[in-house]
Amino acid sequence: MSTTTQETHNGVNVTQLVETVGAIQNDPELATFRFRATNTWLGGGHSRTSIDGFWGAGQEDASRQEPFTLDGDEPPVLLGSNHAPNAVEAVLHALASCLSVGFVYNAAAKGIEVRSLDFELEGELDLHGFLGLSEDTRAGYQNITVTYRVDADASPEQIDELCGYVQRTSPVLDIIRNPVQVTVARA
């Protein structure tokens, strides 16, 4: 009877990570994923998003017992009730989460042990765009600043190289930096 040893770094099953990359290299169609979300307005600035199944790796995923729910609202200064972060704050969360996953997974693949990793993000937004007061001002963030602190068994050069790679391969950073075709239609 043979046993397969699972290599793990940073809580990431590196053996499975390598096998997943190999499977996608052998069958590129496995790389296509379709994520979905539904949102219901609850009143005022408050809404709730439900995230359940998705399609990926060639099939519908049914691994989630219950859908994830995320609330969104606005602070009182923006006429909300502070039930939850607002949508642009959720974008910062999505970016931080994506960078964190990318950093830790890629560090694990390189055998780099990460003891701690923290990101701080700040986005600057001018309400002139959101309120329709200026066609010259974009409605979204004008800039986002990300700083991170990492304690890992790697040289500063290795950390810089890893961070550069993570930036090039982060789906959320790519969504923010590059235009994405978005279609909005009434059902």
Structural summary, described in words:
Pfam families: OsmC (PF02566). This is OsmC family protein. InterPro entries: KH_dom-like_a/b, OsmC/Ohr_fam, OsmC/Ohr_hydroprdx_reductase, OsmC/Ohrsf. It comes from Phytoactinopolyspora halotolerans. The chain is α+β, with helices and mostly antiparallel strands and 187 residues long. The protein folds into two domains: 9-84, K homology (KH) domain (GMP Synthetase, Chain A, domain 3), CATH 3.30.300; 85-187, K homology (KH) domain (GMP Synthetase, Chain A, domain 3, 2-Layer Sandwich), CATH 3.30.300. The protein has five helices and ten strands. A hairpin with a 2-residue loop joins strand 1 and strand 2. Helix 2 crosses helix 4. The longest helix is centred in the middle third of the chain and has 23 residues, at 87-109.
